[in-house]
Design goal:
This protein is mostly helical. The chain folds into 2 domains: about 40 residues, no CATH class; about 100 residues, no CATH class. It has 6 helices and 2 strands. The protein has a two-stranded parallel ribbon. It is elongated and about 65 Å long. The N and C termini lie far apart (about 40 Å).
């Protein structure tokens, strides 16, 4: 059984998921140097390691398709339901491509070599943005989005 840490340093899911926070390391190292058993966790990375996979997105896409059918059979729709249906339909167009390529894109975003190739990064960024939109449609009205500008690299 693993030792229980004296301190847990957690970076919440609102930071970058392409690289860990330096603030966690800046706090963990001095604690450990003083003998404190410090554990660090980056919840953004953990969240997206679960959410941005072909299997997870397939389940979300299937659920989104069921929601479209349910909403189309219900008329009239309230204003927020119409917005939700519009988002579901918009994401339906790219769903198959996103699911097909998401695992490769995740690997490229974590590759020291590939992440600095601007063309590949832009393709990956665009596909990840579609994956966020698909997830947002599932969890409407929650918006799952991150700034993925090339300047972040």
């Amino acid at each position: 059984m693993a030792e229980r840490p004296d301190a847990r340093l957690i970076f919440s899911p609102k930071g970058s998921f392409t690289y860990p926070s330096l603030s966690l390391s800046s706090l963990t190292v001095p604690l450990r140097s003083k003998g404190v058993k410090a554990m660090q966790r980056h919840l953004s990375i953990e969240l997206f390691d679960k959410l941005l996979t072909a299997s997870a997105l397939t389940a979300i896409v299937n659920d989104n398709k069921q929601r479209i059918c349910q909403m189309c059979s219900k008329q009239p729709l309230e204003e927020d339901e119409r917005k939700h249906l519009q988002l579901l339909r918009c994401t339906e167009v790219s769903s198959e491509t996103v699911v097909e390529h998401i695992d490769e894109v995740r690997q490229n975003m974590r590759s020291e070599k590939e992440i600095y190739r601007k063309a590949k990064y832009i393709v990956a960024r665009n596909l990840l943005q579609r994956a966020f939109e698909i997830s947002s449609a599932r969890y409407f009205p929650t918006l799952i989005a991150y700034n993925l500008s090339y300047a972040e690299v």
